[in-house]
Amino acid sequence: MNPALLSLLALGLGLRLWGMGQGYPEFYGHVDEIGVAASIWNFFRAGTLLPTEFTYPAFYSYLTAVALWLTGVCGFTAGADSLLNSLVLESFLNPAWAALVGRGVSAGLSVLTLYLAYYLGCEAFDRRTGLMAVLFLALARLPVDQAHQALPDSAMACLAMLCFCWAWKVYQRGGWGDYLWAGVFAGLVVATKYNGAFAALGVAAAHLLRGAPGWYRSPKWWAAAGCGVGTLFAGSPYLFLAPERYLEVAGYQVSSLDFSLRENTPWWWVVRGLFEVEWAVGALMVAGVVLACWERRPLDWIFLAAWVPSFLYIGSWTRESLHYLLHFYPLLALGAARVVGRLPLRSGGQYLVAGALSLPMLWAGVGRVAELGWEDTRLRAGAWIEGQVDSGTGLAMTWLPYCPRVDLESNREQVRQYCRSRPELLAALEQAWRQRPAYRLVNLEVWLREPVVPEAYAVAVDLADPETRRVFSRGWRSLRQLRELGVEYVVLPEAAYGRYLEGEPPSQRSAAQYHLLKNRAYFSQFADNHPELTRVASFSAEPGVRGSPIHVFRLEPSPAAGSPPAPP
Fold it and tell me: According to the model, what pLDDT value does residue 215 have?
């Protein structure tokens, strides 16, 4: 293998592995990792392939479950009388192990994506373009950040790149194997994450570029489609076997795409985001899209067939996050490399320009991944609670992924019920629990049986919309109610509520306006030195410590003067 390519792959791997243990052995990574990891552990606990997390299709979870099983085979999990019991015991004693293994899967697939970018660059253009694309992609902020998360994005990007590579083979050769493999990977992309589905349009573009018969008369096309459906079923079977579970979540997610607490800029945020996130290389990526529209070479058509509908659809969302377009990063990097390749310089000069433009990304990337190894504010807050608050005390929290992780009495009781037929597991767990206190959890937030809409909003809102109905079905426990439930301490991370205390609410009466005003009224009592609350500890980011500020309040045992403000 080319030494320059090996060096770039090693650089990319190093950046993706460094900081992979962020927050471990606690669950202090991306908040969505908790749901994915819980679903993976449940495969072993319940002996089923039915997920418990329906935000994403299941293929990434299955991949990580296989990797977890291999760690058990290799002896990295808790010792027990069988491999299955060892994994189940690990899921209770060390639940973040699934996230750590999942991050390893993401990192490995992200590095494979680098190689695929080089391969496709050499096939469609030349070796210089492939190498410069790998350099840009190895250091680009978004792929490096996503590779540190036990989430399906990096896997989806790798599978989409495999789909584009086989689409290129469909154009180049058009053999039966090319069509079948293109269909296989198109199906697996969708089985990993929904927003990768448009990658399949690249295969359709390759088919048309060959001047082949229309899809309705092409047996190869139908074979590819059949493979796509087959691998979609194999990769995420409960999309077919339990579609209602996914549709329920999907309905809420689609509804929430139009829900925003602030002004947004449809489509322009994608262009702006590339500049803001990837700096000079992001500008080259945008220029590469323009170049693809201008030159319209075969790979350009394959790229644009998938990019244009993705840009139009995802760009219209109020959730302005580039990670929804991560699967296009390899092709965007190839476009950036092509732009540099058009500079009136010799090959050495073009490499120097590419390297110079990448240096700021390398510097920033090293700083970011080094920061991942810092102590988390949640870890400090959790240690303070365990050291200062007696076991069995009532704690009020909400948005648990943002809060410090402490053992809860309710969780332990559920585990005891689960392990009642496995006394050897329960004995090991009871031994471990004696070393750590457990607390009673009271959720600050409550769900109402029916949505309550104030008269001022009654005409303006549509309760048939899932997100709107959700907003008007959520309430907050008053300080009096918390006290009646035995709460002594309230734990609040600013990452969860800070957004409600800043900025102007939407001008029109809407669910978004009500959501912001209601939450602002509730959380302002904590921020404004309410007489019934005493702040007893705060944990903020500082050199060597990362994360959102977390505040711990003591709820006075008897009412003081004043009362909490009522929601609007």
Answer: 65
The DSSP 8-state label assigned to residue 542 in this structure reads B
For 150-159, how does the pLDDT look when each residue is reduced to its tens digit (9 = 90+)?
A: 999 999 999 9
Cis upstream peptide for 25 (omega within 30°): yes
Rounded Cα gap, residues 166 and 160, in angstroms: 10
Nearest C-alpha neighbor of 500 from the set 210, 261, 328:
261
Render pLDDT for 404-435 as a digit per residue (tens, 0 to 9): 999 999 999 999 999 988 888 899 999 999 99
pTM, to two decimals: 0.93
> Mean pLDDT, the chain, as a whole number?
93
DSSP state of 492: E
Q: Which amino acid is at 114?
A: L
- The CB-side HSE value for 180 (13 A sphere, CA atoms) comes to 3
The single-letter DSSP state of residue 406 is -
Element (H, E) at 346: none
How confident is residue 390, by pLDDT bands cut at 50, 70 and 90? Answer: very high
The predicted-structure confidence for 92-111, as pLDDT tens digits, reads as follows 999 999 999 999 999 999 99
List the structure tokens of 133.
């694309």
Among 18, 30, 324, which Cα is nearest to 156's? 324
10 Å CB burial of residue 418 (0-12, 13-18, 19+) is middle
Cβ-based burial of 543 (10 A; exposed 0-12, middle 13-18, buried ≥19): exposed
- Dihedral of alpha carbons 383, 387, 388, 392, sign: positive
Q: CB under 8 Å to 451, separation ≥6 — which residues?
A: 463, 469, 472, 473
Instruction: For 424-457, give the DSSP string.
Output: HHHHHHHHHHTTS-EEEEEESEEE-SS----GGG
Structure tokens at 296: 């319209």
**How many Å apart are CA 419 and CA 461, to the nearest integer?**
47
Q: Are 27 and 404 a contacting pair, CB within 8 Å? A: no
Choose among 31, 174, 157, 342: nearest CA to 166.
174
Strands 407-408 and 487-493 turn out to be unpaired
Residue 99 sits at the vertex; the CA angle it makes with 95 and 105, to the nearest 5 degrees, is 140
| Beta bridge mates, 445 | 476
pLDDT tops 60 at residue 53: yes
Structure tokens that stand for 445 in this block: 């937030």
Which phi and psi angles does 36 have, rounded to 5°?
-65, -45
Residue 531 contacts residue 539 (beta carbons within 8 Å): no
Quickly tell me which residue has 């803001």 as its tokens. Answer: 276
Contact yes or no for 301/201 (Cβ under 8 A)? no
| Two tokens, residue 90 | 């690990």
Interstrand relation of 407-408 and 474-476 (parallel, antiparallel or unpaired): unpaired
Closest CA to 430 of 451, 449, 407, 452: 407
- Chain Cα centroid distance, residue 530: 36
CA gap 284, 384 in Å, rounded? 48
